[in-house]
Amino acid sequence: MKMFEQEKIPLAVVGATGLVGQKAIAMIDHHPEFYVAEIAASDQRAGQTFEESVCWREPGDIPKSVCTLKLKPIKEVNNRYVISALPASVAQEVEPALASQGSFVFTNASAFRMHQDVPILIPEINIDHLSLLERQKTPGKIITNSNCMVAFIALALEPLMELGAIEHVSVVTMQAISGAGYPSIDSIDIMGNIIPHIAGEEEKIITETLKILGTQTQPASFGITVHVHRVPILHGHTVALHIHFASSVNMHDINDIYLSRNQSWPGLYRLYHEVARPQPARDIGPYDQSVHIGRIKQGARDNIIGLIAMGNNLARGAAGASVRNMEATLQYNSSRENRV
After folding, report:
1. Catalytic positions, written as ranges
2. Do residues 162 and 218 touch, judged by C-beta distance below 8 A?
3. Which of 26, 76, 179, 212 could form a disulfide with 58 if both were Cys (CB 3.0 to 4.6 A apart)?
4. What is the pLDDT of residues 216-245, one digit of tens each?
5. Runs of H (alpha helix) within 172-298
6. Nearest CA-CA partner of 285 in 54, 78, 109, 26
7. Which runs of E-coded beta strand occur in 76-150?
8. Is the CB of residue 166 less than 8 Å from the CB of residue 222?
9. How confident is the model at residue 175 (pLDDT cuts 50, 70, 90)?
10. Strand partners, 171
11. In a 3-state reduction of DSSP, which class is residue 274?
12. Alpha carbons 34 and 74: distance in angstroms, whole number
């Protein structure tokens, strides 16, 4: 084992060869606290090296630290910290087994998001929801990301709750094809086209957003109307939000509200004043963790605000969210131990 690895915390990535698993591995490669010690995928690939088995889609080369790591069957993973990039159908069975053996599972799958004892964690919004872990009976725990579109919706909405009570939010999404995994949509279906439906997505946006923005036990109570669209761009989810408040709001306060959050979370929000920004091709980097917000405007009435929010669906909405959740959980557990 290399000297630098002895000073870091080992973790496992399961579902390592997919787009989310690859992004997680790339983001962990230079992480100051963690390193990838185990990788796992389907039983058919067990025994192959990562380099042999993966169709690498990240910028640059495969990190040398994982090239020769051999893929394990998922049931043989034994690290305390696990990033799961498994599909929900597989996660439903595998992730509780990992938690039962003592692993903290940071999952991208939707399988457990709506379980009452499992937090959908966005640390900048609802770090207190980690108290739900105390209700989980297993020695390990399951902590979920939100849906990758929900991450940008919730992060855009939560600061605006300072303006007053929200009554209703209209949501129209434009979601990149990488959000469907790889391989996914046939090029003949998406090139030069927009698909105005993604199975299960509208329901996830409603229920997950309300759970995240509520308390540990009670979801938020405002209404949400959603239309989703798959659009022919590779990376970057965009959403148009029209937010209806119970009373009039001053749109000139909005920039200051977002910028004040950057004092606690540097770089979390990037604000644009040009009428044609933000744009995925111009404004999103491959490991971008920011929420890009523009086109802020008053609606037809003074209790309505409209805006555009956008972000990297893999680096912030999926794999990067797991990494941030892992960092936040370790800090939360450490501070809790110190208090005790």
Report:
1. 148, 237
2. no
3. 26
4. 999 999 999 999 999 999 999 999 999 999
5. 187-190, 201-213, 254-264, 280-283
6. 26
7. 81-84, 104-107, 141-144
8. yes
9. very high
10. 226, 241
11. coil
12. 20
Rg of the chain on CA atoms, in Å = 20
Pairing of strands 34-41, 71-73: parallel
Rounded-to-integer distance, Cα 273 and Cα 145, Å: 30
Indicate whether 5 pLDDT > 80: no
Torsion of the alpha carbons at 179, 184, 44 and 80, rounded to the nearest 10: 0
Structure tokens at 187: 């090029």
**Residue 6: CB atoms within 10 Å:** 9
Burial group, residue 92, by CB count within 10 angstroms (0-12, 13-18, 19+): middle
Mean pLDDT throughout 146-168? 98
Which residue shows structure tokens 């599909």? 87
Question: Quick one: pLDDT at residue 334?
Answer: 77
**Cα dist. 179→15, 227, 259 in Å?**
15, 16, 28
